[in-house]
């Protein structure tokens, strides 16, 4: 399972990198950088699911 960000939907609200900094990092232009793309553990998948919930634009997804 892979963590993805659709940068066309992202509005740089920052909820992902402020709340889930194990998975995301803020870049200089305000967009998130994905730190861990491969969700290999339940803990990572749980964290990613929480990030999806806090993103206001639906930009974060998990792909099989
Ligand atoms: S929470 Fe969503 S809209 Fe905000 S920076 Fe992260 S991906 Fe972009």
Major pleated sheet = 2 strands, antiparallel
The total of helices stands at: 2
**Uncertain residue ranges:** none
Share in β-strands: 15-25%
Derived structural class = alpha+beta
Proportion of residues in helical segments: 25-40%
Gap between N and C termini: 5 Å
Total discrete domains: 1
Q: How many E strands?
A: 4
CATH architectural name = 2-Layer Sandwich
Radius of gyration: 10 Å
SSE sequence, one letter per element: EHEEHE
User: Per the principal axes of the C-alpha atoms, what is the gross shape?
Assistant: globular
Q: Provide the CATH top-level class.
A: Alpha Beta
Strand order of the largest sheet: 1-4
The CATH topology annotation reads as: Alpha-Beta Plaits
Description:
The structure is a single chain. With 64 residues, the chain is of the alpha+beta class. The chain has one domain (2-63): Alpha-Beta Plaits (2-Layer Sandwich), CATH 3.30.70. 28% of the residues lie in helices and 22% in strands. It has 2 helices and 4 strands. It has helices at 15-19, 42-54; strands at residues 2-5, 24-26, 32-34, 60-63. The strands form 2 sheets. A two-stranded antiparallel sheet has the order 1-4. A two-stranded antiparallel sheet has the order 2-3. Iron/sulfur cluster binds at residues 5, 10-16, 32, 55-57, 59-60.
